[in-house]
Specification:
The protein has helices at 16-47, 52-61, 65-76, 81-91, 94-105, 111-118, 123-131, 139-162, 169-191, 195-218, and strands at 2-3, 6-7. The chain is mostly helical. A hairpin with a 2-residue loop joins strand 1 and strand 2.
Length: 219
């Protein structure tokens, strides 16, 4: 059953199929947030001058909501390619911290598997994976959750790219804000009584805030 943002999965002795299904169920709240935010990004990217395939390709390769939106904004302002790459790289450094947190809980999986799983670590997948009660801490569970989330983000980006001009600016701005609201909603129940997780949130927030503030000051 769903308690707040946590999907309580009680049986630890799951089959491989059950682990995949559990990961898919845990991805549902992330998917519900990623599609509308992806639409907002798609509209923003198209307004910045990217075509539909460039917009979707960025989502498929970068896979970072905040960094993609920042990159689209920098493209619109005529920033140099190297500046955009360095800024998004610094902004995404927080994923190293979150990946470490995920891998500390993950049971099994060789180094190549963990390296591949790191691509699927986002603010939201990390929050759900580290706070879901009694979830199977296996690579299969994480890959299922991450893959469904990944597809929903790409879908939202594509919908936003083809819907450019159909959505009013007010609606687009509201969709963009929902990314942060969703992350807070997923994470807050798990912070209660978990000092280590709270420290991780503060650290990653600082890693995210510093480059963003620097970019706004320099552009």
């Amino acid at each position: 059953r769903l308690v707040g943002s946590e999907m309580c999965i009680r049986d630890r002795n799951m089959t491989k199929k059950e682990e995949w299904l559990a990961g898919t169920r845990s991805a549902v709240p992330i998917m519900l947030g990623y599609v509308p935010v992806g639409i907002a990004y798609g509209v923003m990217a198209r307004q910045a001058g990217l075509n539909t395939w460039q917009t979707v390709l960025m989502s498929l390769t970068v896979y970072g909501g905040a960094s993609e939106m920042m990159a689209a904004g920098m493209v619109a302002q005529g920033a140099a390619v190297l500046t955009i790459v360095l800024t998004t790289f610094i902004l995404n450094l927080r994923h190293i911290i979150m990946s470490t947190c995920v891998f500390n809980q993950m049971q099994g999986g060789r180094l190549p598997v963990r390296m591949l799983a790191a691509f699927g670590v986002t603010d939201e997948t990390c929050a759900v994976y580290t706070t879901t009660a009694n979830a199977p801490r296996t690579p299969r569970y994480f890959f299922s959750m991450a893959f469904c989330s990944y597809l929903s983000w790409a879908l939202g980006s594509w919908l936003g790219a083809i819907a450019t001009g159909l959505l009013p600016p007010l609606i687009t701005a509201a969709l963009g804000i929902s990314l942060y609201a969703m992350f807070i909603g997923l994470l807050m129940p798990g912070l209660h009584g978990n000092g280590r997780l709270a420290a991780l949130v503060v650290l990653t927030a600082l890693c995210n805030t510093v480059p963003v503030s620097y970019t706004h000051l320099t552009l």
